[in-house]
Amino acid sequence: MINHIKKLLPLDKLEEEVLLSKITFKKLKRRQFLLQEGDVCRHYNFIVEGCMRMYMVDEKGTEHNLQFGEKNWWITDIGSFHSDVPTQLFIDALEPSEVLQIKKEDLIFIYTHFPKIDRYFRVLIENAFIKMQARVLQNISATAEEKYLTFLKDYPNLSNRISQIQIASYIGVTPEFLSKVRRSLMK
Amino acid sequence: MINHIKKLLPLDKLEEEVLLSKITFKKLKRRQFLLQEGDVCRHYNFIVEGCMRMYMVDEKGTEHNLQFGEKNWWITDIGSFHSDVPTQLFIDALEPSEVLQIKKEDLIFIYTHFPKIDRYFRVLIENAFIKMQARVLQNISATAEEKYLTFLKDYPNLSNRISQIQIASYIGVTPEFLSKVRRSLMK
DNA sequence: CGCGACGTTGATTTGCCTCAACGATTGTGG
DNA sequence: CCACAATCGTTGAGGCAAATCAACGTCGCG
After folding, report:
1. From its phi and psi, is residue A16 left (phi > 0), alpha (psi between -120 and 50) or beta?
2. Cβ(B70)–Cβ(B93) under 8 Å?
3. Is B99 within a domain?
4. Alpha carbon of A35: minimum distance to chain B alpha carbons (Å)
5. Domain assignment present for A173
6. Cβ contacts (< 8 Å) between B59 and chain A: which residues?
7. Residue B73, SS3 per DSSP
8. CATH code for position A86
9. Taking 70 as the threshold, does the pLDDT of residue A2 lie above it?
10. Nucleotides of C under 7 A from a protein CB
């Protein structure tokens, strides 16, 4: 199952061995937490199997989904990870899941000794940043219906697997209103 | 004026010389474009003086501000830059401005020969990503008033210099409504 | 001086939320 | 394996936040 990582970038023997030696494996039941508000995020997490989410809970107790992740995706609170600051976010499993974890000191070690992997992570963040940027644009310019359609287009796999409550929370509307949007789309 | 970059990370003589040799200077009048929809974004742009914005224009002709930039900030459409794809964004100057530009091939050259600078740009993107993430959270969870107050807190310099039309477009409300929010805040 | 941006205000409309209720499905413990 | 609880998706009535449209005074600038 660790081959998943190798698919993403070509590695030589040494790089592969070092990565393998630094990785730990973790199994999560449905609803189990990988990160909770107040924790410091100490790992980069790579999802091997299942489906997860990262979200915030506001003062009223409402959850707001920041990101989903499935097989072959990274899911990490980069802010907390890099600044060693307690996170405001939660990460939990929407389905039984399996993740690979790399600790911060190991990642830094890898960064400094293997520029190729360093560059891989830069590209990773660049792509994540580009997506976030597109999402901000949607948020400030689109209607709920447009946001929903964009979500379906961008995440066709996820849209079948996760509940509308989760989708509603991701695009920033209530589940009731999302239901009405869907109804008007069916017409 | 090129010292601005050096303040951001300690450079040795060689790194400094290489950077200097790869940089070009550009002066912009108020309202002049640095990038327009349909262009491919070919430079990383570092603002030396003035104030700029990056924005999208929707089908109705409404502008939506994605990012502002002032002295010592980078402003670039990273998506278009890295994929050589025509951008959907505009970058123009809100005030007379001066920028330093690095071409893509030069940046790649620097990345491969100077890992330290490579890492500097990774950190740059990480920080930008973290901010974008926080902004998405605001977008899906906060009211217009909260978004406005957050903007004032995050960009105290900018809020004095740029018009409320620009701020409204950044937080995703109409200028009329922002005016009403401000009125109710004065109480 | 006159024009065009800007900020503001008011009246009206609309998109989305809140709350409450209801079947249908899922899941869980006895 | 069944019974009960919990979660989910949906619907409707009513309310509020924000958009739209129109009008107006102010200011900076050519």
Report:
1. alpha
2. no
3. yes
4. 17
5. no
6. none
7. coil
8. 2.60.120.10
9. no
10. 5-11, 15-20
- Closest approach of chain A CAs to the CA of B2, in angstroms? 25
Asked if the structure places residue B12 within a domain, the reply is yes
pLDDT at A39: 97
Q: Where are the alpha helices (DSSP H) in chain A?
A: 3-8, 13-22, 78-83, 104-113, 115-141, 144-154, 156-161, 164-171, 175-186
Closest partner residue to A133 (CB to CB) among B66, B134, B141 is B66
What is the CA A23 to C1' C22 distance in angstroms? 49
pLDDT at A75: 97
pLDDT tens by residue, A103-158: 999 999 999 999 888 888 999 999 999 999 999 999 999 999 999 999 999 999 99
Residue B7 has a pLDDT of 73
| Number of domains present in the structure of chain B | 1
Region of residue B14 (left: phi > 0; alpha: psi -120 to 50; beta: else): alpha
Q: Chain D bases under 7 Å from protein CB?
A: 7-13, 17-22
Q: Is the CB of B182 under 7 A from strand C?
A: yes
Nearest to B90 by CA among B132, B46, B31: B31
The answer to the question of residue A118 being in a domain is no
Return the CA Rg of chain B. 18
- Whether the model pTM is above 0.85: yes
- Structure tokens belonging to residue B15: 């790194």
The domain of B61 spans 3-114
Q: Which residues contact A65 (CB under 8 A, 6 or more apart)?
A: A53, A54, A55, A166, A169, A170
Residues of A in contact with B132 (CB under 8 A): 129, 132-133, 136
B86-122 pLDDT, tens digit per residue, is 999 999 999 999 999 999 999 999 999 998 888 889 9
Interface test mutation site (partner A, options B91, B141, B165, max chain A beta carbons within 10 A): B141
Q: Taking the CB of residue B174, how many other CB atoms lie within 10 A of it?
A: 13
